[in-house]
Design goal:
heterotrimer, A mainly alpha, B mainly alpha, C alpha/beta, A: MetI-like fold, 12 helices, B: mainly alpha, globular
């Protein structure tokens, strides 16, 4: 009767090994990038969640006596061409765009990571098929494919989710696959395999913890790109549909008033910038903290 | 080197085939009847059926694929449903604009990336380094189209430095008209490239052979350019290749913002009008361009770094 | 003493800034006569590599030479500033440790060797190429005209090391500083490279400073030895003397720790204790916690460095009680 002797978990400080949690927290506290990024991101999430409470007006409320007003005490950031309060729309658009952005990356993250790990670990025909699919998808210019898919599925949030599901998983798959290939060759995985451990266990306990950190770092960068893409699609009229407030549609609506009421197009853009900044810094900070020193 | 090139070309051809197939499937998955869309809602069923037959839409999917491929091999990209002229002529008229935009954008990306990265790397953790890093983080979060709008507002409308939109006349006029769009599109790529090249240079600067080069008595400039930059460029060149796809895609957006008559804006309008053949052809052309540009950068990288040829 | 070609005195190198600063090389001094060979021995962390880098003015970021004098043929060489490296041309050259990482992967070895005559000495492209081939032949590379067109990854470790040596010789230095040039090589190849260095020394009259942690290797090349521990020189003298009758407990410990295939009676013995962290070096004599000859006062005061006056002007030790060591 054979007994499985499981090798100890990855050495604490070797490349890709899991580091004790308190060391990670210590490093986290010392990284200004991480702190600032987290602060900005958290503020934005709070704004999004608390939108119904903090927004001065409803985003659809039209103050028809005050169309295209500039900054005023009644409307802090002015109103748009339909009399809607700009500040309220900005707050609600944060809610919309963050929600859509975060939801849109879930499938690519999960699917891409799983596929990438399996392809890297198993190799063989699975790997070849996945890599060819990745090559073909990557050859398509991003927006071309997304727009084409949106036309197959239809505009609006459903279109966005489907389009990103098809196009975006490849980044994760590639990154995770490379890490998996490296981890697979490492000593402790070799030890686990010769020890006779079933693949599923090896993948779960030894491979995944290491590759997942790479995927998470990619995630934080990808969310920024996805949010920018959602806003861009909104600008083109292919994304979030009115009357739901969205930074992209706000920019497009405000474009004709650029010379007179510049806030209408500029402020949503700045909002996107700040969001992207916060999430990028968070991602960079996380990458610094998680990186094997 | 030759063997490596041959292998890469073969792989590229396979990918192009995959792109062709994928485009075809994508178009035929689309709901909605283009014939009915063109003839209008009052069209009789017979008229619609006749048009469908003429366009080959009534035969089975594999038959349509076969027909498409056989036409493709002959260089025939079909006829536009909307304009009624050959797709090749439509593309031919507009490809120059898009190609020029891509070229200008790439040039700007290189002009921005190389000096900034070199500056940041040579003064690591100095204020120049922090500024460059801050700018590249901001650049990543920047929606290209919004940046374009702001640029137009500042440089064209207020400062009158460059034209507001359109293609301009003559070579000089043309180039001038492409400055803002090219700059806008390059900002999509520049932050990623700056990051990559800066990190690459820092890593190379710590390498032993750089110390050896200095020990040999070589001056700092020679070490920086002949050894540090030459080594650091390789991963960034590969990254540039990967980003060309993104760049070409963003021309769709940029052409909209600046009102240019390129393939991007044609693609957008064709999708809106359900003009199958045009969409299919443009997607194919752009996809192929990406594959071959990638190939070119990969080969260039192999030329720079002899170790790549072994893979 | 003043007839020596290369003189080093009071060399001190510190690493880091503020509260994390520590001294990695302290008051190091030695001499090398023209055409002579000095072996510098010590474990990793003894400061031997940093010493060489300081001599070449090639200290990495965050590492500074606090003080010290380096003189070649009586002329002092500066440690910092643009003149520092120019002053070393044609005088000092360094052979680095890892031949794979020491060569630029994107250029052929011929180009890299030719870079010295071409860029540093101002020769023409054709003359530089000829000189490169000549140098490669001198270091024993077979078929040098062909091999010059090879890339570093296409050559074996031994060949790459020869290229590094050729590059160092290209500027016609008077002193060759070698930082563990054989550590990354197989034993058989090691012997070849050592022989080559010895041969070059005799033919070209070049002095060699050879740093290594391997006593057996140093024994073969060096006329003189300097032993280093925690950044200090603890013993100097002719190699045969130092190895035969060590005057410092650390040297004795090193000898006892080596496996001697000819001496089956004595098993190797590790030095008790562990190498101290350079940031927290023991007070007084840094070796005292591990020393079996130590007295109480060894922990109290720094022993300094004394020359033993037995006719050998270079015989010196940092031990207060060398007679205890020499007695066995």
């Amino acid at each position: 009767m054979t007994t499985f002797v499981e090798p100890p978990g990855p050495p604490p400080l070797a490349e890709g090994g899991r580091r004790p949690r308190h060391i990670l927290l210590q490093r986290a506290r010392r990284s200004p990038t991480l702190i600032i990024g987290a602060a900005i991101s958290l503020t934005l999430v709070l704004v999004a969640v608390l939108a119904p409470l903090i927004s001065p007006y409803s985003p659809d409320h039209q103050d028809l006596y005050n169309i295209l007003s500039g900054f005023s005490s009644k409307h802090l950031f002015g109103t748009d061409e339909l009399g809607r309060d700009e500040l309220s729309r900005l707050i609600w658009a944060t809610r919309t765009d963050l929600r859509v952005g975060f939801l849109a990356v879930i499938f690519p993250f999960c699917f891409g990571s799983v596929v990438g790990t399996l392809a890297g670990y198993r190799g063989g025909w699975l790997d070849t098929v996945v890599m060819r699919a990745v090559d073909v998808l990557i050859a398509f210019p991003f927006y071309v494919l997304v727009i084409a898919l949106i036309f197959v599925v239809g505009t609006g949030t459903t279109g966005i989710y489907v389009a990103f599901a098809v196009v975006d998983w490849v980044v994760y798959a590639r990154a995770v696959r490379s890490t998996t290939l490296v981890v697979r060759e490492s000593d402790y995985v070799a030890a686990a395999r010769t020890g006779g451990l079933p693949d599923s266990r090896i993948l779960l306990r030894h491979v995944l913890p290491n590759t997942i950190t790479q995927a998470v770092v990619y995630l934080t960068n990808d969310v920024v790109l996805v949010i920018v893409a959602v806003v861009t699609l909104g600008y083109l009229g292919l994304g979030v549909q009115p009357p739901t407030p969205d930074w992209g549609t706000m920019i497009s609506d405000g474009q004709e008033f650029l010379t007179t009421y510049w806030a209408l197009s500029t402020l949503p853009g700045i909002a996107v910038l700040v969001t992207g900044l916060g999430l990028s810094l968070l991602g960079d900070g996380l990458a610094d903290v998680l990186r094997p020193q | 080197m030759l063997r490596y090139a041959a292998r890469r070309v073969a792989a590229a051809v396979l990918v192009v085939f995959g792109v062709t197939l994928a485009t075809f499937l994508l178009m035929h998955l689309e709901p909605g009847d283009p014939a009915r869309a063109v003839l209008g809602i009052h069209a009789t069923p017979t008229a619609v059926a006749a048009l469908r037959r003429e366009w080959g839409l009534s035969s089975s999917l594999p038959a349509q694929l076969g027909h498409f491929l056989s036409q493709l091999v002959r260089g025939d990209l079909g006829q536009s449903y909307i304009y009624g002229v050959s797709v090749s002529s439509l593309i031919g008229a507009r490809i120059g604009e898009t190609a020029a935009l891509v070229a200008v954008a790439t040039a700007f990306a290189v002009i921005i990336t190389v000096p900034l990265s070199a500056l940041a790397a040579s003064r690591q953790n100095g204020w120049a380094d922090h500024v460059v890093r801050a700018v590249s983080v901001v650049g990543l979060a920047l929606p290209a189209f919004w940046f374009g709008i702001v640029l137009i507002e500042v440089f064209a409308v207020h400062l009158h430095l460059v034209p507001v939109g359109g293609a301009g006349s003559g070579f000089g006029g043309h180039l001038e008209a492409l400055v803002l769009p090219g700059l806008t599109a390059s900002f999509a790529m520049a932050p990623i490239l700056v990051r990559s090249l800066r990190v690459g240079m820092l890593e190379v600067m710590d390498a032993d052979f750089i110390a050896v080069a200095r020990a040999k008595g070589l001056g700092d400039t020679r070490v920086l350019f002949a050894h540090v930059a030459r080594n650091a460029l390789v991963p960034t060149v590969t990254l540039l290749g990967l980003n060309i796809a993104y760049l070409i895609g963003s021309t769709v957006i940029v052409e909209q913002v600046f009102n240019l008559n390129g393939l991007g804006s044609l693609l957008l309008s064709s999708i809106l009008n359900r003009d199958f053949p045009v969409v299919q052809a443009i997607t194919l052309v752009l996809g192929t361009a990406v594959v071959f540009l990638n190939l070119a950068t990969d080969l260039f990288a192999a030329r720079l770094d002899p170790r790549i040829r072994l893979r | 003493m003043s007839s020596a070609l290369l003189q080093v005195r009071d060399l001190t190198v510190s690493v880091g800034r503020g509260e994390r600063r520590y001294v990695a090389v302290r008051d190091v001094g030695f001499e090398v006569p023209a055409g002579g060979s000095l072996g510098v021995v010590g474990e990793s962390g003894s400061g031997k590599s940093l010493t060489l880098r300081a001599l070449m003015a090639l200290l990495p970021r965050g590492v500074r030479a606090e003080r010290g004098v380096v003189e070649l043929a009586g002329e002092a060489l500066p440690f910092t500033g643009p003149g520092a490296r120019r002053a070393r041309r044609g005088r000092l050259a360094m052979v680095f440790q890892d031949p794979l990482s020491g060569l630029d992967p994107v250029y052929t070895v011929g180009t890299q060797v030719a870079e010295v005559p071409r860029r540093v000495l101002g020769a023409s492209a054709a003359a530089s190429r000829r000189r490169a081939v000549e140098l490669l032949r001198m270091v024993g590379m077979p078929d040098p005209e062909q091999r010059a067109h090879a890339f570093p990854h296409q050559l074996s470790g031994g060949m790459r090391q020869r290229v590094l040596i050729a590059m160092a010789l290209a500027s016609e230095p008077k002193v060759l500083l070698c930082d563990e040039p054989t550590t990354a090589l197989d034993v058989t190849v090691q012997a070849q490279v050592l022989e080559l260095l010895d041969d070059l020394r005799r033919r070209l009259g070049v002095a060699v400073v050879f740093v290594s942690h391997d006593l057996a290797v140093v024994r073969q090349v060096a006329d003189e030895l300097a032993v280093m521990y925690t950044g200090r020189v603890v013993e100097t003298g002719p190699a045969t003397e130092v190895l035969g009758h060590p005057a410092h407990p650390y040297t004795l410990g090193l000898l006892e720790a080596v496996v001697d295939l000819d001496d089956t009676a004595h098993a190797p013995q590790a030095i008790p204790g562990a190498l101290p962290d350079l940031a927290h070096v023991p007070s007084g004599c840094p070796f005292h916690p591990r020393c079996r000859f130590a007295s109480d006062d060894c922990a109290l005061s720094d022993p300094g460095f004394r020359y033993l006056g037995d006719g050998d002007a270079d015989r010196g030790t940092a031990c207060k009680y060398p007679e205890r060591v020499m007695a066995g």
